[in-house]
Amino acid sequence: MEGWKGASVNQLVWKRTQLISIVVIALLLLMAILVNTTALRQQTWLRVLFGISALNFMLRASVPLILGALSGILCERSGIINIGIEGMMLAGAFGAFFFKVQTNSWPLLASLMVGVLAALLVGGLMGFLHALFSIRYRMDQIISGTVIIVLATGITSYLFDRDAVAQGKFGEIRIPLLADIPVIGNVLFNNPPITYLALILVVVLHVAIFYTRWGLRTRAVGEHPSAADTVGINVNRFRYLNTTLGGMLAGLAGGFLVLEAVGQFQEGMTAGRGFIALAAMIFGNWNPFGALAAALLFGYTQALQNELLLAGVTTIPRQFVSMLPYVVTIVAVAGFVGRVRPPAAEGKVYETEAH
Q1: Which of 9, 120, 138, 213 is most exposed, with the fewest beta carbons within 10 Å of its own?
Q2: Cβ atoms within 10 A of the Cβ of 321, count?
Q3: CATH of the domain at 249
């Protein structure tokens, strides 16, 4: 009975969160259209809050958060806590940079694709390592995630060649007709490929988790592993697979930073994005669309930070503006963490009776 009540409360909170997210996004789009198509764009503070520049930056800032949150969803829906997203992201960024530098002499598209594959492989390796520590060696999963972060930070700092330069990055791909839609078209349909891929993956992962056999088994493994084992599902195999796939998505988030956003690698360049992605996953109630909405919210706070600094707003201390994304993250998680329910078997090592 307690489990049923907990699930009912969880669904109620999720529906309420969905409603709030839809209303906020609708208001944001409405204000953006009004500000960018009427005389309201003459108002500096409205332009800062709702200008096309702010919306474009919001989407760019959200992409690594979206991919990181999807990574966390894959892992935690399977029962593996993953706070190592930051480390997987950083390792993926370095892998993309290293192989991009090695292939600078190749045609640009081929070189960039090698960088993407490297980010996926390195991130997947880190995900597999996390699964190995958590499942085979039964390490506390929080500690294992911390080890991944420390390992990635140390290795990338040690191997990073400050004289190396990656030449070129992904450019924007304009989708005909759709890109001509006022305001929305310029924001959503004129982006580089990894941005499109991140948005597509939200839909794909949502369908996969809630409407496929693999998704049903994944949720069963994360909620009731003993029941899943009883009907013949190999619980730990699913956990290995999904944690590795989650690592690949986190690695792709790092690859985005190097191959699409910045164009180069910098030590510690993820700058806490992995932890914000983790917060987006929780805020989104372990649901891909919820995570998307949360990532856009956190990305919007980063866009405000950028726009306020570019607009030369001096009435607000610069330090406060810089910490805005992190403050919003803390407030959001603090307000929702007690009201959402993670997968029931999250963080619990499972052993079959055969062992």
Answers
A1: 213
A2: 16
A3: 1.10.3470
- Distance between first and last Cα of the chain: 31
Transcribe 146-214 into DSSP letters.
Answer: HHHHHHHHHHHHHH--TT---------EE-TTGGGSTTHHHHHSEE-HHHHHHHHHHHHHHHHHHHSHH
Could you give the angle at the alpha carbon of 151 between the alpha carbons of 145 and 155, nearest 5°? 155
Q: Which two tokens stand for residue 121?
A: 């492989």
Looking at the DSSP assignment, which residues form a beta bridge with residue 190? 174
In a domain, 352, yes or no: no
Closest CA to 66 of 250, 304, 313: 250
Mean pLDDT of the chain: 88
What is the predicted pLDDT for the residue at 209? 95
Domain span at 196: 2-336
Q: Decide if 341 is inside a domain.
A: no
Measured in degrees and rounded to the nearest 5, phi and psi for residue 105 equal: -80, -10
Number of domains present in the structure of the chain: 1
Q: What is the pTM of this model?
A: 0.91
Torsion of CA 157, 160, 161, 166, to 10 degrees: -140
Mean pLDDT on 282-311: 86
In a domain, 345, yes or no: no
Q: Determine the 3-state secondary structure of 144 from DSSP.
A: helix
Would 349 be classed as within a structural domain? no
What is the SS3 string spanning 236-298? HHHHHHHHHHHHHHHHHHHHHHHHHHCCCCCCCCCCCHHHHHHHHHHHCCCCHHHHHHHHHHH
Confidence of residue 163 (pLDDT cuts 50, 70, 90): very high
Tokens of 122: 């390195």
